[in-house]
């Protein structure tokens, strides 16, 4: 695919690196760091947040996180550590019963893991995918609050905005809801998330898989400082996400905020000239 022609410096807050055969087999794709970097360059993306893809059930993310950090060296990637947990993210009676008995296993994230990642200069934030990996225990979330690093949360129909509010937003840390909190293609949930931005000053959204122009424009116009560009690469070529923002009926200044200013302000390692 040909590179896009534009004058924007673009930072991507959502990319996935599959660092080993286990991750590739689980997620069903095999895209090398070199190819991902090349696709980013074609789209004009200068830096990107990267975290591991899904691990097989019962497997820790420790090795995958360290592999992503290693693969990010000398590349325009900023590593985020992916965390898991024993708690069911659902809000029904079955989830409530399960959570009464939820005990942390050896492969689940622990408070000490969060502390280690927080003080390791290879990592600049965290990623949660609750509907896949479960929710961490409260002591882990408290350690995340103490670390005060950005937490990217994959929300949507299986972990909707009201669940995010219930489980995470009482903690004082920056939370970024991937896909406007409405994956896949749920405009009602996306609009619910935008309503939450009025209530929570440290809540942000990123744009991956938000295919509704009206919803994107609402987010950018109503909350110009809290919308971050995300592509969802390599599931989607970053050119696709860039074009969706470029075709919005908003000013170039607002586009520059989404593409670069907002992500760099929230995640300093993404800023121009930052040492990564």
UniProtKB/TrEMBL annotation:
Alphabetized InterPro entries for the sequence: Amidohydro-rel (IPR006680), Metal_Hydrolase (IPR032466)
Residues annotated as domain Amidohydrolase-related: 59-267
Lineage: superkingdom: Archaea
Name the record gives this protein: Amidohydrolase family protein
Organism: Halorubrum rutilum
